[in-house]
Amino acid sequence: MKTPDLIARASAGDHQAFRELVEGHSHELQVHCYRILGSLQDAEDALQETLVSAWRSLGDFGQRSSLRTWLYQIATNRCLSMLRADSRRPRTTAPLPDVRLPEPTGVGDAPPWLEPYPDVLMDGLVDPAPGPEARYETAEAISLAFITALQLLPPRQRAVLVLRDVLGYRAGEVAEMLDATRESVQSALKRARATVDGHLADSGGGRPARRPDTAADHRLVARLADALERADLQALVELLAEDVRLSMPPAMLEFRGIEVAREFFAAVTLRSGRSYRVVPTRANGQPAFGMYLADAGAFRAYGLLVVTTADDRVTAITGFGAGVMPRFGLPRTL
């Protein structure tokens, strides 16, 4: 059925027509909300509120823009409202391991609410080609480094950069979506680009991001998994870049450099008596591992590691708690 017919039926209260109208857009809207909010849980909440708002206000949709643009406008403003409320952000950090840690090299950029995004949720995603003014490819715009960089921006700058440089909307369109002037959109975009590009350069994210899908990348990831399961510290360290970065949201700490990483893995992950099983997965377009720690005759979910690679070395490892693992289809025990 054609879109105008579905809009007419949905406006008259036909729920099935509304579902047909939005089902092709809901997944990409969730990814959009995740980019702005940095949390999958928050993105799911924002998506549901977007769809409820669209259902209630469909009668006001005058088709002055495309349905997709209208839905993006609602979703973006819903995300901005959530960011202004700010009540969703955790105010406490995760307890650190009860061991002697090396001295952190600094405060990490990753915010405490950051969550990984399962690649499986992107399978079959209908991702229309971005507008001609987009600066980022889809794979780059979902990477953990890029999502982290976005979280450094004030909310309005964050929304402007995603709408302009990821989705490719024109400045005038973004101004209308945000009820702003074209000049304020261009000003916000300039400041946002400077922050994001600077963070990506410093984090080793670089541009353009490359998806680790070569044979060499697969070998590197396999060697890392093997080193973790054998608790072979030296083999693991040999895979790391000299300026490797370790972080573990929600703890706002960063451990940077190969020698600090060696101390960290020796003190925490690979300390004496620990034994792991590793289950490969993918998050944010990057290799990831579900880590399972031996405990009372079983291997229990311990955490998720998201790995960044470049030039046949591991340049960053971001660790998340076991609570995110079910979203990746990973069981609680092996």
TrEMBL record:
Coiled-coil intervals, chain numbering: none
Domain named RNA polymerase sigma-70 region: residues: 21-88
InterPro entries registered for this protein in UniProt: NTF2-like_dom_sf, RNA_pol_sigma-70-like, RNA_pol_sigma-70_dom, RNA_pol_sigma-G_actinobac, RNA_pol_sigma70_r2, RNA_pol_sigma70_r4_t2, RNA_pol_sigma_r2, RNA_pol_sigma_r3/r4-like
Record bears the keyword Thylakoid: no
Region feature Disordered, mapped onto this chain: 90-112
Keywords: Sigma factor, Transcription, Transcription regulation
Domain of life, per lineage: Bacteria
SnoaL-like domain: residues covered: 221-315
Subunit structure: Interacts transiently with the RNA polymerase catalytic core formed by RpoA, RpoB, RpoC and RpoZ (2 alpha, 1 beta, 1 beta' and 1 omega subunit) to form the RNA polymerase holoenzyme that can initiate transcription.
Family: Belongs to the sigma-70 factor family. ECF subfamily.
Protein name: RNA polymerase subunit sigma-70
Organism whose genome encodes this protein: Catenulispora subtropica
